Amino acid sequence: MGLSVAEAAVRRGLHLVPVSFSSREKVKTTIQVGQTDIRIYGPSAREDVLSSVADEFPDVIVVDYTAPDSVNSNAELYCKLGLPFVMGTTGGNQQLLYKSVQDSKNYALISPQMGKQVVAFLAIMRIFAEQFPGAFSGYHLEVLESHQASKKDTSGTAKDVIASFEKLGVPYDMNRMVKIRDPDQQLEMVGVPKEHIEGHAFHLYHLTSPDDSVSFEFQHNVCGRSIYAEGTIDAAIFLHRKVQSKDSKRIYDMEDVLREGYMR
Ligand SMILES: NC(=O)C1=CN([C@@H]2O[C@H](COP(=O)(O)OP(=O)(O)OC[C@H]3O[C@@H](n4cnc5c(N)ncnc54)[C@H](O)[C@@H]3O)[C@@H](O)[C@H]2O)C=CC1
Ligand SMILES: O=C(O)C1=N[C@H](C(=O)O)C[C@H](O)C1
Q: What angle is formed at CA 57 by the lines to CA 55 and CA 61, rounded to 5 degrees?
């Protein structure tokens, strides 16, 4: 995701700060994105480098796509240095994440789903549940999600949709979710195109009525990373505006971005 976001930033004419990070100390030291050579630093340089970035680039927005177990420590560092950030990484302790931002009075946009059309679908499901609580009482829910083999956690997006189904009256045990990470199954059973085995997010929710006479199916299938990368750039521009205007809310999500007219 890091590279896709950097490429989208260049496409959108943003200035890329020539610095990125890896979880490994020994990494290839630079990569070129557009005309910019980006220097990659290992974990031990994190605080010093970010501190210089904060001084040199006062308008910077940090984008985090790392790993669930880095979410909280990374966020704490951004908050300590007063660096506004977009957190696309899923997982971690979400309560603690929000608390770090609140306590530090930093600015952040946090969303386990940056794809704007998918965010709109999540919002519809939430509004549906608010308007018609219990509408699917007695129905049975099956959920399947398929992602690239490197994905460590369960889909944060599926968890969000399931929360709406629960309000619609369908209890669901998260342990029952079918999580597909095996490339052969993805090709044969899920129907993921071969070229997207290493970057896709397929979700299927199937509801059946108590007597099996009615069924509903919802699907959102994403190939590649561009929908998230483009949404992340919208999020970064949105957050920069909020910082500039000293907006009092300080913590935002992608629905805030869509509501301010970025849905296109
Ligand atoms: N919000 C959204 O719309 C999306 C969220 N994601 C989430 O973003 C995260 C990353 O996804 P991908 O880019 O596909 O994973 P990836 O595994 O391809 O890349 C993550 C990279 O971050 C590095 N990393 C891990 N911890 C780090 C740290 N503390 N500092 C610097 N680098 C670190 C890893 O070495 C790896 O190179 C996952 O949690 C995924 O679920 C992914 C796609 C969309
Ligand atoms: O890891 C991914 O790829 C994705 N992660 C997010 C999630 O867990 O919901 C969003 C999307 O599914 C892609």
A: 115
